[in-house]
Amino acid sequence: MSETEEDRADAWFHALSDRTRRDILRRVLSGEHSVSALARSYDMSFAAVQKHVAVLERAGLLTKRRQGREALASGDVEAVRSVGAMLTDLEALWRGRISRMDELFAEHQKQDQEHDDRPDPTDR
Amino acid sequence: MPVTDVQHDLDALTLTITADFAAPVERVWEVYADPRQLERVWGPPGYPATFVDHDLVPGGRMNYYMTSPEGEKYYAYWDIAAVDQPTSFTFKDGFAVDDSFTANPEMPESSQVFAFADVDGATRATFLATYADAESLQKVLDMGAVEGSTLAINQIDDLLAS
Hints:
heterodimer, A: about 120 residues, mainly alpha, Arc Repressor Mutant, subunit A, 2 domains, 5 helices, about 65% helix, B: about 160 residues, 8-stranded antiparallel β-sheet, 4 helices, 8 strands
């Protein structure tokens, strides 16, 4: 990696190290959002959200344009990739559900076995 | 891990997950037939699901809510379309406006098909979810039920590869 690419990677990792910024990026990757609409989604001040947007913009992950008094932000990665990322997020949710089911089955099996292992009072 | 296959279809907006469970089909079905068991597996960690109504029959309704770590409740429902006990059921999964469980027309509905096949006494489960459009997918994720971490990791991979 060249010096500039290294700087770029630093900026990406810094931008994505924050949960709110990852969330903002996910939203703007699916379509343009006004900064004020984004700000309403979080329990923090408009200025704080604006700062997060600026960090993402500096990292080249987000672009902004003006429309009247509104600042509109959109993600800078092609749409298909973002759909892929969203499906991956859902996949993570599903993997969790499936492993919880697996645990539930294992647990019941164990209980059944313990039940089977118990001495049968009629068996003398 | 019981997950054996995952298919993402970016054009059809479907997610298909196949999993093998070391339990007979009837046992897997029981999870969906019993709201208390369903609650244990449905909500992600930190977002427990509570099923208020549970009617797993064609035309039936399953009403539930998930509670966020901050105590916020997300109301949702399943509209059951078809049931073929114990091998499959089909439903629409949507969000409700409040605890009346009236469907929220501003939120997307996804189509879900869950199928369970017997493989030598164990179960091969196939979960197929279909979303109407990218915005619907986004809204589902915005409900807060999914952490952004996988996205972050994948985006970094993509970005570094480009």
